[in-house]
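Q: May I have one protein plus its fold?
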Amino acid sequence: MAVDGKSEPLLIRVEDFEYHKGCPGCEIDRWKHDHAGIPYKSLMFVWIIVLAASLPISSLFPFLYFMIDDFHIAKREEDIGFYAGFVGSAFMLGRALTSIAWGTAADRYGRKPVIICGTVSVVIFNTLFGLSTNYWMAISSRFLLGSLCGVLGPMRAYASEVCRKEHQALGLSTISTAWGLGLIIGPAIGGFLAQPAEKYPYWFPQGSLFGRFPYFLPCLVISALALVAVVSCYWLPETLHKHGKHEKFDKTITVKVIPIESGKVQVSEPESPSCEQSLLRNWPLMSAIILYCVFQLHDTAYSEIFSLWATSPRTLGGLSFSTSDVGEVLAMSGFGLLLFQLILYPLVEKSLSPLNITRIGAALTILLLTTYPLIAQLSGLRLTLLINIASTFKNILSVLIVTGLCILQNRSVSQSQRGAANGISIAAMSAFKALGPIVGGSL
C-alpha cells in the first residue's frame, strides 16, 4: 500500500517484548513466543501428576463396604452404608476447606511448590489409608489427604499458562481427561487388587503383609504412581511471574498487531493489582463455577449410582453384574476416553467454542441417561455392547463439559488471580461432591 508516495507494510509487527531476567513466568512467555507448537513434554508431566492425584478419590468405593465391615463399627449390616458415606466424603470435605488457601499460595509462592506438596501428600496419606486398622484412622487419613492435596486448582492455572492461547483448550482437556481417567481407573484398581489374599492366595498368602492389611495393595500401587509424579515435578517449569517488590506496579507497554490502514497503533497497559476485580463480583467466573458445581454433584452421584445399579439384581431393575463386570466396563470406558482425547477432541475444540461445548454436552447427557432403563431390559452381547458404548459416551461428555467450564473460568481472570479463582472453584466443587455419595446412595 502506498501512502504519500511511499510503500508501507500492511501490518505493524512487533518483535520486542519486555522480559524480566530471572523471572520463570517471563521465561515461559519467551518460550511460547519463540515456539508456536504444543508443549508436549510439559503436558505429559501434567497428565502424570493429575492422574496420580485423582486415583485415590474413587479407588476405595469397590472395597469400602468390606473395609467398614472389617472395622466392626456398624452394629447392624444396614448401618455400614451410613459409616461408609462419611469415609467417602472425608476427602472432599478436607479439600473444600483448604482449596482456596492452596490457590492463594500458588498465586503468591508459585504453582510448582504447591503441586509438589500436594503430590507428596498423596504418597503419604494414601499409603496410611491402606494401612488403616480402625475406622477413625481411615477417616482421618482421607480427610488429611483431601486437605493437603491441593493440586487440581494450581494444575488448571498451570496448564492454561504453559500453553499459547490457541492450545489452552488442549492443555485443560489434558487435565480433564487425566482426572476423568483417574476416577474411572481408580475403582478398577480398588476392585481388582483389594483383598488379594482371598483373590490371589498363590501370590499373597494369608500371613503376608497384604493378608493382614487386605486393602493396602491398591493403595500401594496408587502411591507408587504418585511417587513417580513427585519425581516428574523436577522437570516441571514454573509459570508464575516473579518480578520483585520494586517491579510490582511496573507497567509494560505492549504494542498490538493492527492493520496500518486504521492509522492508529493500539497501546494497552495492564491494570495494577489494586485495580483487579473482586473474584466474588466477577460474574463470568462465578457463573462458570456454579455450573461446574452442579455438574460435579451430578457426576459424583452418577458414579456411585452406576455401580449400585449395575450390581443390583434384575428384579430391581439392575444388571446383575459382578464387581469384575463393573471393572471391565469402567476400564473400557477409560480406554475409549483416551482414544477420544488423542484423536477426536482437537477437531471438536476447533469446531465449537467452550460455551457451546458445555451446552451441547449437557443436553446430550440428559438424553443419554434416559436410555439406561431401556438398556437394563437387554441381555447377552447386546447388553455388553450398549452399556460399554453408553458408559464411554457419558465419560466423553463429562470431559467436554468440564473442559469447557475450566476454559471459561481461567479466561475470566488475570494470572495474578488465577490460582485463587481455581481454589474457589475446587472448594465449592468439593463441597458439592461431598454431598454426591450421600445423595446418590440415598436415591
Remarks:
- The chain has a mean pLDDT of 78.
- Residues 280-442 form one domain.
- Strands lie at 2-3, 6-7, 254-255, 267-268.
